[in-house]
User: Which sequence fits this backbone?
């Protein structure tokens, strides 16, 4: 299966595209620029690690990249909180992004669990 067929990759990619749009509306300030760079890096890393892990086709390596993707997802959530608290995004946008983050987290945890169960079989 190609990584682009994975719903978790599709949702992660969509999250990245949404965040790219969000960042375009940030104020032109040094702090906002730094936060924009960080959230773009972390959100882009989610789908990239899912894709790379899928390309490895091995349980342990795939699991490793999914765990890294999960870490990047959590980092993205952290930056979104900062964006909301600083007024760079409104509460509605924050809640929409956070809902997607929760969905991706459940999918990643499920996929990691399946890989671990298959290793025990």
Assistant:
């Amino acid at each position: 299966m190609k990584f682009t067929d994975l719903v978790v990759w599709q949702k992660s990619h969509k999250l990245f595209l949404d965040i790219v749009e969000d960042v375009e509306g940030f104020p032109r300030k040094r702090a906002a620029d730094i936060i924009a760079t960080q959230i773009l890096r972390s959100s882009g890393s989610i789908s990239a690690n899912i894709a790379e892990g899928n390309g490895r086709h091995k349980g342990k390596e795939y699991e490793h990249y999914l765990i890294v993707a999960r870490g990047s997802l959590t980092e993205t959530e952290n930056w979104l909180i900062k964006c909301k608290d600083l007024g760079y995004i409104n509460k509605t946008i924050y809640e929409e992004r956070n809902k997607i983050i929760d969905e991706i987290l459940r999918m990643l945890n499920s996929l990691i669990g399946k890989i671990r169960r298959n290793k025990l079989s």
Summary: The radius of gyration is 15 Å. The CA atoms of residues 28 and 79 lie 17 Å apart. The mean pLDDT is 96.
